């Protein structure tokens, strides 16, 4: 059983998600606005958040930013808008999935279970901290240091960097990265990977060139 926070200003939407979630054995807490959602996250621990973008008091994007400051909780974003900009902005914030309204409750539950499954999977053990000049990566601790300074990444940026490092010097296609990191039937496209790579390189500073672009293929971590 997972503890799920559902943040949406539409009561009917919350009721539908509650009904299907409880049928799947999950425990639901509701919030009608972003401010309430942030407050609940400060007081409680959740396994997953399903959050609408357009909400009163504090929108979903802003609420996501505030929650990310205090806790690393998987987030599925809901929106009546299907614009590519909204999706890419959400993934830049580190959300795990994006569902456009109106949605199929069964599909939403499939996505919920997939996100929960990915985040409950044990991390691959690492025998030691990996160092590449001044870049220090500790996968079990999920920490990255650049010249001794800790770098804060979004959850998906951590996952992407660790995957690249674990497969260093191996060419990885965009499709494989999407499949292995985002998983199952993720409906994003190549630009999702490109956006995360761009942000990751910016965070790595002068060590950005360790992530090599393979034209027409994808990327690899070259060390």
Automatic annotation (TrEMBL):
Residues with the 4-aspartylphosphate modification: 52
Domain Response regulatory: 3-116
GO molecular function per UniProt: phosphorelay response regulator activity; transcription cis-regulatory region binding
Cross-referenced PANTHER family: REGULATOR OF RPOS (PTHR48111), TWO-COMPONENT RESPONSE REGULATOR ORR33 (PTHR48111:SF1)
One record GO biological process: regulation of DNA-templated transcription
One GO cellular component term: cytosol
DNA-binding feature ranges: 127-223
UniProt domain OmpR/PhoB-type: residue ranges: 127-223
Organism of derivation: Lentihominibacter hominis
Protein name (Swiss-Prot/TrEMBL): Stage 0 sporulation protein A homolog
UniProt keywords, alphabetically: DNA-binding, Phosphoprotein, Transcription, Transcription regulation, Two-component regulatory system
Gene3D superfamilies named among the record's database cross-references: 3.40.50.2300, 6.10.250.690, Winged helix-like DNA-binding domain superfamily/Winged helix DNA-binding domain
């Amino acid at each position: 059983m997972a503890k799920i926070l559902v943040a949406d200003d539409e009561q009917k939407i919350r009721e539908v998600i509650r009904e299907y979630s409880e049928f799947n054995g999950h425990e639901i807490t509701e919030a009608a606005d972003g401010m309430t959602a942030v407050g609940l996250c400060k007081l409680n621990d959740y396994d997953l958040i399903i959050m609408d973008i357009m909400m009163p008091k504090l929108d979903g994007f802003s609420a996501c930013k505030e929650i990310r400051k205090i806790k690393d909780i998987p987030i599925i974003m809901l929106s009546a808008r299907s614009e590519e900009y909204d999706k890419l902005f959400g993934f830049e914030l580190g959300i795990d999935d994006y569902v456009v309204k109106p949605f199929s409750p069964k599909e939403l539950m499939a996505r919920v279970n997939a996100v929960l499954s990915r985040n409950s999977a044990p991390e691959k053990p690492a025998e030691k901290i990996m160092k590449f000049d001044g870049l220090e990566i500790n996968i079990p601790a999920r920490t990255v240091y650049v010249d001794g300074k800790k770098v804060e990444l979004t959850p998906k940026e951590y996952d992407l960097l660790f995957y690249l490092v674990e497969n260093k010097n191996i060419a990885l296609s965009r499709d494989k990265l999407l499949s292995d990191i985002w998983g199952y039937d993720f409906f994003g496209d190549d630009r999702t990977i490109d956006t995360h790579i761009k942000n990751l390189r910016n965070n790595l500073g002068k060590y950005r060139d360790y992530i090599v672009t393979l034209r027409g293929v994808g990327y690899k971590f070259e060390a």
